[in-house]
């Protein structure tokens, strides 16, 4: 079977051939230098007689992937395999069929989920490969008994149908990515969280998997259902084009009941950097609190409508995003929300807002059930694992809070100055106790409630240290309180 890439050598044993059958019970052979035990028998199917070759041995996965060579870089290792080859005779209209089964112990796969696995994990695998008489291949794969893939290849054009708990849909592409033929993905359902969870592993993949932006063909993706944890998006699309510099991401968007994401970007190569990823994106929502809760970042923000605008760049592949290499800007503009107790470790972007520390500067009973705000606005710049802001403002009836300084996204620390101007009728009792002790707290209460000062001058604090436990110091207080 050299045309399919299988080359059996050193075949030894007794083969019986007569006008009724071909049979051999104890053959010894090798495939790519690995020993096999084999047998040959004549069997009859619905279309007539065929010769069935059965073989078993401990083989490298690459040997069995000969008809699909583009998969070889992603699969490595050796395992016990059983192989059956049905060869129809000249009067049998059946196609030549190669059936393979294994538990894949010792084989690792760097393919996307659900076909990713490590070599120490067992995963039942069955593959039926038909060599079509009219030309081409038909490939049916069942993985772990419930992930199914059906595909056909004719003239290098593959049509693939996928059916699993994390991905359902159809894909069409040319096996030769250098050909000007787009890859189209018509997706019924995709569990995005399953793919995003691979990102840390992807950063450590062997260099053999490294590809440039010009490796991929044009991509056209349409998805009717995208799931990310508890978030469900019912309309998503992506369109990319090859360019002289690599890949242009002309357009992508996702729309859900309370969320809209629209953007564009690029993945280029330059003389200075092998990979440059750029991303421009606008996120709008009438309930950011619900969005952050559904994607598992935090449940500490309720309601809040508005938008977030992103213009980012990092010198690596798109799937190797890391805060330490990020450069760019982000604009936040929220209104009419409610802040509860938020752990900054819940997400790097939440760390930008320093909510947990701000809520520790308690404003008396007025925030005992959280901090209601009218607006949150701010611009952030990103460089060297840090985010910087000079104009972050949280406006509420309790106080106006402004933030300036650095937020360490890689190191998870703060170096900020926070200014607080109490609103009309607000009390800063606990805030004063935290920053200046009980004497200052009593003074604040006296000035506001006894002397009728409804709006006191500005307080300033420094916030430094780890996100989990920053050190808060009072820098400036109203003159009457010093």
Describe the protein in words.
With 482 residues, this protein is mainly beta. It has a domain at 1-148: Beta Barrel (AOC barrel-like). It is 11% helix and 51% strand. It has helices at 61-64, 192-196, 199-202, 288-294, 348-353, 355-360, 429-436, 438-450, and strands at 8-12, 16-17, 22-31, 34-45, 48-60, 75-88, 96-102, 107-109, 125-131, 137-143, 147-154, 157-163, 167-174, 183-191, 219-223, 226-228, 231-233, 235-243, 246-256, 259-268, 276-285, 301-314, 326-339, 371-383, 386-395, 399-408, 413-422, 459-466, 471-476. The chain has a 29-stranded mixed sheet that branches. A hairpin with a 4-residue loop joins strand 2 and strand 3. Helix 7 packs antiparallel against helix 8. The N and C termini lie far apart (91 Å).
Helical fraction: 10-25%
Note the gap between the termini.
Answer: 91 Å
Q: What is the number of helical segments per DSSP (H or I, 4+ residues)?
A: 8
Could you say which structural class the secondary elements and strand pairing correspond to?
Answer: mainly beta
Instruction: Calculate the mean pLDDT score and round it.
Output: 81
**Rg over C-alpha atoms, rounded to the nearest angstrom:** 31 Å
């Amino acid at each position: 079977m050299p045309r399919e890439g299988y080359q059996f050598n050193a075949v030894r044993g007794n083969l019986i051939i007569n006008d009724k059958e071909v049979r051999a019970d104890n053959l010894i052979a090798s495939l790519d230098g690995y020993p096999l035990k084999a047998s040959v028998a004549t069997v009859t199917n619905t279309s007539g007689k065929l010769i069935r070759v059965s073989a078993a041995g401990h083989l490298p996965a690459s040997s069995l992937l000969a008809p699909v060579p583009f998969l070889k870089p992603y699969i490595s290792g050796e395992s016990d395999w059983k192989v059956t080859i049905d060869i129809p005779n000249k009067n049998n209209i059946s196609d030549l069929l190669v059936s393979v089964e294994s538990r894949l112990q010792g084989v690792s796969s760097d393919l996307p989920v659900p076909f990713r696995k490590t070599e120490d994990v067992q995963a039942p695998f069955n593959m039926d490969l038909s060599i079509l008489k009219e030309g081409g291949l038909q490939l049916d794969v069942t993985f772990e008994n419930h992930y199914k893939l059906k595909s056909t290849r004719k003239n290098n054009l593959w049509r693939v149908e996928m059916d699993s708990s994390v991905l359902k849909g159809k894909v069409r592409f040319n096996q030769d990515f250098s050909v000007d033929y787009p890859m189209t993905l018509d997706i019924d359902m995709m569990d995005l969280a399953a793919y995003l969870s691979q990102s840390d592993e992807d950063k450590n993949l062997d260099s053999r998997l490294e590809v440039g932006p010009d490796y991929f063909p044009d991509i056209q993706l349409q998805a009717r259902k995208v799931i990310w944890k508890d978030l469900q998006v019912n309309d998503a699309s992506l369109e990319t084009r090859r360019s002289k510099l690599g890949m242009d991401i002309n357009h992508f968007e996702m729309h859900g009941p309370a969320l809209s994401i629209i953007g564009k970007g690029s993945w280029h190569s330059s003389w200075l950097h092998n990979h440059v990823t750029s991303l421009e994106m606008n996120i709008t929502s009438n309930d950011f609190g619900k969005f952050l809760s559904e994607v598992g970042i935090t449940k500490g923000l309720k309601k809040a409508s508005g938008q977030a605008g992103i213009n980012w760049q990092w010198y690596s592949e798109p799937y190797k995003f890391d805060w330490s290499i990020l450069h760019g800007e982000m604009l936040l503009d929220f209104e009419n929300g409610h802040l509860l107790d938020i752990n900054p470790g819940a997400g790097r972007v939440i760390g930008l807002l320093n909510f947990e520390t701000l809520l520790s500067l308690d404003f008396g009973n007025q925030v005992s059930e959280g901090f209601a705000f009218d607006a949150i606005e701010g611009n952030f710049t990103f460089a060297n694992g840090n985010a910087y802001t000079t104009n972050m403002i949280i406006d509420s009836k309790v106080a106006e809070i402004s933030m300036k300084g650095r937020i360490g996204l890689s190191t998870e620390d703060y170096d900020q100055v926070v200014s607080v101007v109490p609103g009309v009728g607000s009390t800063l009792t606990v805030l004063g106790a935290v920053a200046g002790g009980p004497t200052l707290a009593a003074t604040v209460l006296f000035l506001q409630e006894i002397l009728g000062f409804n709006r006191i001058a500005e307080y300033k604090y420094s916030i430094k240290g780890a996100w989990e436990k920053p050190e808060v110091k009072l820098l400036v207080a109203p003159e009457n309180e010093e």
